[in-house]
Amino acid sequence: MRGLLLVSSLCSAPLAVQGESGPLGPWRDGVEVSPVLPGLNRHSVHANHLASPESPDGKWVLLYTSGTPEGHVGELRVVERATGKARVLVENVTVEDIHRAACQQWVSGGRRVVFHDCRQGEWLVVCVEMDTGRERVLARERQLGWGQPWANLVPLYGPHWNPGGHPDLELLDVESGTLRTVLKAEAVRAAYAEWATKTYGDRPLSIFFPVLSPDLSRVFFKLATPGGGDFRSAQASIRKGLFCYDLPGSRFVYMQEYYGHPAWHADSRTLLWTSVHPGGFALRDTGGGVLRPPRKRLPSFPGSHPACGPGGRLFTVDTELEPFDGPKGHWGVVVGDLEAGDYLFVHKFDNARGAASWRRSHPHPVFSPDGNRLYFNVNATAWTELYVAACR
Q1: Cβ neighbours for 49, distance < 8 A, ≥ 6 positions apart
Q2: Which residues of 220-231 are buried (b: 16+ CB within 10 A; e: fewer)?
Q3: What is the pLDDT of residues 81-109, one digit of tens each?
Q4: pTM of this prediction?
Q5: CA nearest neighbour of 100 among 131, 133, 63
Q6: Domain segments of the chain: what residues?
Q7: What's the CATH number of domain 3-390, 3.30.70.270, 3.20.20.150, 2.130.10.10, 3.40.50.410?
C-alpha cells in the first residue's frame, strides 16, 4: 500500500517538451495523481502556492477541511503519508475565505504549525505543537504572512480591511514568542512617495501579504488601504504594488506597480513571474528588476500562481486551459524547466465547481520539499479537494 497514492489517474499528455531525459523526465509519464483524503465528503485544501503542505521530513501533509458549502469554518488536519491516516490538529477554525484558508504552514522544521483564526471577532495568530497538540496564541489583531518551514520566523501584518494599530511589517519568532517591527508602512510611502500619492492619495496605508525569501533575507509584499464594509468582500481593501525589501540591509531593492502573483526562486534573490511582460513567463532579479527569460519563450499561463522547485531548475504553475484549446472552466497544472523553457501538463481537470466561498479556491500547485510530488486544489465536484501528483 502506498498511502496517499492509492488512486491513480494519468490525465494529460506532454506539451512543448524536447527530448525524453533531463529535469522533466520523471514527470513525463507514469505520474500518479490522487486525492490526499479520498471520500472525505468535505472541502480539503492547502493554503497557497507559497508554502508546501508537506512537512520538511516528508511524513505529513497539512490541510484545512470544512463541511460547510462556503468552507469558512473548519479544522486543520494532518495526514500521515505512509498510511493515509488523518488526525485533527485544531477544530472550529474561522477563515477569511477558502482561497488561502487559515494560511496554515509548517515552521520550526516541521515541529510546529502556525495559522491565523478569527475567534469572537478577533484575528489571532496561533501556533500548535505537532507532538503534544498544545496551542499558543502568539499575536492578536494580526494575520499571517508566509515564512519558511525550516525556520521559526513568520511575517505578520494587521488585517488589510482594518489594520488598526498594526499597519507595519512585523516578524514573529514562534519559539520565543518575540514580535518585532522591521518595516513601517509610512517608510514605504516615503520611499515611493510619487507612486503612493498617485495610487492612494493621503489614505492610510498598511503592509499586506508579506512573503519571506527562502534564506529569510528578503521579503516581498503589497500595500493596502481599507475599503470599508465586510471583510468577506472584494471591496474590503484596495491592494496594489509589489515591493521587495532587504531585511539585513534595511533597504528597498525593488518595486513595480503590478503584483502578478510572484513567488521566490530558490536563490532568494529572484522572483518567478507569469504574465507581467509580453515575453511571457520569466524570472526577475529583485536586485535591479532585470528580466531573465528562459532560452525558449514560455506562455503567460493565464490565471497562474507559480512555485519554484527546491533545486531552482523546475517550476510549477496552474493555468486556465482555454488558451491551450481546453474547455471553459477547466484548468491544468504545469511542470516546466526554467532554463530550457520546456513544459508539460501533469494534470487537467474541471475547475468550475468547488466551495461556494466569495473568493474561490485556486489550484495553487506547489512542490514537496524533495521535489518529487506536487500538491494542488481541484474544484471538480461540490467539494474542493487537495490532490497530490507523484512523479516516477
Answers
A1: 261, 263, 305, 306, 307, 318, 364, 365, 366
A2: bbbbbbbbeeeb
A3: 999 999 999 999 999 999 999 999 999 99
A4: 0.94
A5: 63
A6: 3-390
A7: 2.130.10.10
